[in-house]
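Long-time lurker. I teach an intro course on protein structure, and each term I like to show students one example going from raw sequence to a predicted 3D structure in C-alpha cell notation. This year I'd like something fresh instead of my usual example. Would anyone be willing to generate the C-alpha cells for the chain below so I can use it in lecture? Attribution to the forum is fine with me.
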Amino acid sequence: MKLATTLTILALAFIVTVILAPISIPLLRRLKFGQSIREEGPQSHMKKAGTPTMGGIIFLLAIILTTIGVGSFLELFTTYTVVLLLVLVGFGLIGLLDDSLKVVFKRNLGLTSLQKLIGQIVIAVLAYFLLGSFDTTLAIPFTDWTIDLGNFYVAFLIFWLVGFSNAVNLTDGLDGLVAGTASIAFAAFGVIALFQDQADIALFTFAVTGALLGFLLFNANPAKVFMGDTGSLALGGALAMVSVLAKAEILLLLIGLVFVIETLSVILQVGSFKLRKKRIFKMSPIHHHFELSGWSEWKVVLVFWSTALAVALIAVLSEAFL
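-- Reply from a regular --
Happy to contribute to a lecture. Here you go:
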C-alpha cells in the first residue's frame, strides 16, 4: 500500500467522522442520551453529567463506511476484513445495549458483567470459525521464538478479545484518553501490517485511526460527546483482533501498555482491599489516582498519550529492525 493510499484512508475516515459528529451530537442530546456519572468517582466529574454518550456510533459508522468503500474499490475486502468488522460491530452492539440500558434507567449500570461476557464470547467464537484454518502460534517479541497453542488457541482468542475489550473500556474515564491512546495503537499496528504486506489489515487500522482523530476534535477536554461502551468495547475487541491477524498478539501487551496498566491497577486495588482491607491507589483505574493526587485531567491524558506513543514507537521499530 502506497503512502498516498494510506493518507487517503486516514483523511476519508477523519472527514466522515467530522461530518457525522455535528449531526449526531445534537440528536443524542435531544434523545436525552446523557452520561450518568458514578457517585463514587472524582467529584470534579459531576459537571460532566448529561454530556451525550454513545458517541462511539459516530466513529464506528465512519470506520465501516471507509473500510467497505475503500476496500471494495481497491479489492482489499477479504475474510480478514469481514472478521475485523464482525468484531468491531459485534462488540459495539454489546456496548450500545449497555449504554442504552444506562440511559433508560438513568444509572451507571447497564448489562451485568455476565451478560457482557457471554456476548463477547459469542462474537469471539464466531470470529474464530470465520477464520477457518489459522496459524495457532504465538510469536515472542524481540526473539525468533514461537509457541504453538494448537487447539487451545480458541481459548486464547476468547481471552484476548474479551480481556482487551474490557481493558479499553476501563481506560475510558477521561476526556480524549481512549480516543488518543487507541488511535496511536491502531496506527502502530497499521505500520506493522504494511511491513507484513497485509494491506487489508492496514486499511482497517488506518480507517480506525482517522476516525478516532476526527472524533477527538469533539471528545477532547472539555468533551462535547463521550464514546460510551459502544465505542470502547468495540475498539478493545477490534484492537485485539488486529493483533491476532497480524500474528503480533504478545506485542499488543507493549503497544497497549496503557490499557494493561489501567486493568492491572483495578485488579491490584480490588485484590488488596479484599485481602488486606487497604487500598493501593486513591482510586482505580489509575488515571483517577493521578487526578486525586492533584494532576489536571489534561496532564493525565497527555502523559498517558505520551506513554502510548513511546511504547508504540518501540514496538514498530522492533518489527522493522529486529
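Some talking points for your students: Residues 139 and 146 are 4 Å apart (CA to CA). Strands lie at 137-139, 146-148.
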